[in-house]
Amino acid sequence: MSGVFSQLKNPFKLLKYSGTKYSIMHSVCIFERNISIMKRKLNIIAGALMMTAFICVPMLSGCSKTKSVSTETTVEKAAKKSEAVSKDGTVETEKEAEESKLKVMASFYPMYDFAVKIGGDKVKVMDMVPAGTEPHDWEPAATDIKNLEDADVFVYSGAGMEHWVSTVLASLENRNLVSVEASEGITLRLGHEEKEEHEGTDEDHGQYDPHVWLSPLNAKKEMENIKDAFVKADPNNQSYYEANYTEYAAKFDQLDQEYRDTISGLTNKNIVVAHEAFGYLCDAYGLKQVGIEGLSPDSEPDPAKMAEVIDFVRENHVKVIFFEELVSPKVAETIAYETGASAEMLNPLEGLGDEELAAGEDYFSVMESNLEKLKAALE
Questions:
Q1: For the chain, first and last CA: distance in Å?
Q2: What sign has the CA pseudo-torsion 275, 280, 283, 286?
Q3: SS3 at position 321
Q4: Backbone φ and ψ of 345, nearest 5°
Q5: 52-56, 144-148, 261-265, 327-331: lowest mean pLDDT where?
Q6: The model's pTM
Q7: CB neighbour list of residue 42: distance below 8 Å, 6 or more residues apart
Q8: CB of 374 closer than 8 Å to CB of 355
Q9: Which H or E run includes 135?
Q10: DSSP string of 224-245?
């Protein structure tokens, strides 16, 4: 057989063999050829399978990854999507709820505090005067004007406190802005028409005392006016604003009664203050204020005024000279030194510092503290 297979290279030589031998060799040749053909076909199929696997495996892997990413994105969206149900039963996202709030600009701290208390979670309030800044001579910057253009409500106290208001309001293009002068309806105290030289001209600081909020009942009226403005701008939440006002109106009444009960029992009713900011407070509870400076906290007393105040302190046995947080205590400390009195801070609530705000101080806590200091000074 080995001889036969060795001759397959030239199969025609097999013809010289006998018939039987030729028949066997012919069959072997055909068998060998069929095996070779089958091997080639198997190689082709195997190659095709390998190519298919090479192409499909990355595709399947890619499909798997795409599906995973899509699922992850959906989960993230579901997790981040916070829903709130409004009063009418509709569902709104946290972003939509935030955007639906009234945008309120407040001219300085008391207006900011009152607006936050009335508006609660229905409003977004911005205090225009930065924390710790004295507001009397503050003026709005371009960013403040832009914020007013985008606002729904603008709250200011009035009575000359914000000397820039009329000019700014006249310049605005925001015709939908609801502006409210919180002191409207309050009987104003006549102040000094202080005139100071300012770059060669006299500057009029106004004829009214603007510090109306330092009487609790005046503050209550200011909050009522703010509530009415919110109702006008957002009538759908009227009951919410009304309920908040009712709550805080009761607190103002309680604070007013505390002042009456405490101060009525004191024999000494004279207070000496660096800045004449407490006129409405004094009028409400029978106190007399003597100001070292006038209604403007940055005015400087002349020597004659200093001598007058020193005489008053000595003659009336005044124990405490009050100064303010946002104004230098230097003048008050000088008079205290000359008379043997002490110098302490009485807060006119024109602005709170960052530390006070962080500690949760507000109108009521500061007014309670003021009452304690007045009681200690006048006993």
A1: 137
A2: negative
A3: strand
A4: -90, 130
A5: 52-56
A6: 0.73
A7: none
A8: no
A9: none
A10: HHHHHHHHHH-GGGHHHHHHHH
For residues 328 and 299, what is the distance between their CA atoms, to the nearest angstrom?
Answer: 11
Return the H-helix or E-strand segment holding 207: none
CA distance 244 to 117: 7
Distances (CA, A) of 241 to 53, 83, 102, 152, 225: 70, 23, 12, 16, 11
Closest CA to 278 of 333, 180, 349, 332: 349
Average pLDDT over residues 247-268: 97
Helices (H), the chain: 2-6, 19-80, 94-99, 109-119, 142-150, 165-171, 216-233, 238-264, 279-285, 303-315, 330-339, 354-358, 363-378
91 in Cβ contact with 84 (< 8 Å): yes
164: confidence class by pLDDT, cuts 50, 70, 90? very high
The dihedral region occupied by 353, where left means phi > 0, alpha psi between -120 and 50, and beta the remainder, is: beta
Going by C-alpha positions, the residue among 317, 217, 308 that lies closest to residue 267 is 317
Q: Based on C-alpha coordinates, what's the Rg of the chain?
A: 44
Q: Is 125 helix (H, G, I), strand (E, B) or coil?
A: strand
Q: What is the dihedral of CA 167, 171, 177, 183, to 10 degrees?
A: 0
Question: Element (H or E) spanning 215, and its range?
Answer: none
Beta bridge partners of 102: 123
Q: Which two three-digit tokens encode residue 253?
A: 């009444």
Supply 200's token pair: 């060669």
